[in-house]
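Lecture notes, unit on protein representations.

Consider one protein chain, 387 amino acids long.
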Amino acid sequence: MKKRLLILGSTGSIGTKTLDVVEDFPDRFEVVALAAHSNLELLKAQCEKFRPQAVCLTCPTCLEEGAALAERIGARFYPGEAGLVDLVRECDADLAMIATVGFVGTLPTVEAIRRGMTIALANKEVLVTAGDIVMGEARQAGVDVLPVDSEHNAIFQCLGGTQTAGVKRLILTASGGPFRGMNRDAMRNLTAADALKHPTWTMGAKITIDCSTLMNKGFEVMEAAHLFNLSIDQIDVVVHPQSTIHSMVEYVDGSVIAQLGMTDMYFPIQNILLYPERLPNRFPPLNLAMLGQMTFFEPDRDNFPCLNYAYDAARRGGTMPAVLNGANEVAVARFMAGEIGYLDVPALIRAAMETHEVTDNPDLQAICDADRWARGFAQSYSAVASA
């Protein structure tokens, strides 16, 4: 029988790659639901090709056209961010690809777990903000949370699953982003256009900005701790500009196992969609001789402090991770809109963390409240770092 897929974030970089895999293995998958934010034209094309039973659009200005699209293909329509949860609650699927961006993916992920769907997780903010709750729900329901991010998928492959017996530490690799080697003075006048020029990966705008500040890597550290049930202090980061080694596992006996591959998200997506099977695909093999060399550096935590903030938030726990994420989402949006400077992004996040009164052992409502508080704080923040 075909595996039934529900794809949240179908028009983003992960969502489109997921549908590429589906096209390449048509006898293995059926797309039952698609959800997107505002890319109506691409969603139309996807709906015409894959004919899902349900469609969701979250952008408030697209709802009328989204409803018309769903009616044209005979699908149920789910409007707005609340529609993401309703879609998951009312659709029957075997696997939910969570490829949305930001906190918006958290509640539908919890709902998918409660429905018994396998989770293919590409939205790291879900575990950053509510990792204890999400993984606790998954364990209770007996649901697998399978990592799609290239770094976490690499670790998943190195471990042969999620068994961490004998593991000393995980080593996440980072490209270093477009500003590797820059100091703060050189960063003062950077623009969003500068930050969107990632040296190795092609991704959406928000995650690309996060890569430039190393916040994305900080989120990945936090996500890895939840996925593999390890201490935050057992997870390290090394800068690897070639992005050929996607991550490594070091064992207590000194052995280090690395996963290598081309810089294309098709590979980890195929791995998770077909797991535990491995099937050949249309890509050429990795040519190490052509690569020539691989280099490694320590991350620059002084000029890119967001990595430290992620470790700090994880160690503090409670609602602090949600505040870190909420403040970052608004800071990135304001930077991209030209409202604040590049150096204001980490300054804003630090200010939110220093101001927030943490709630320990939060439930989902407390996490949502902390996210809302952080967004309000970040929206009213006055830029000072780049003045």
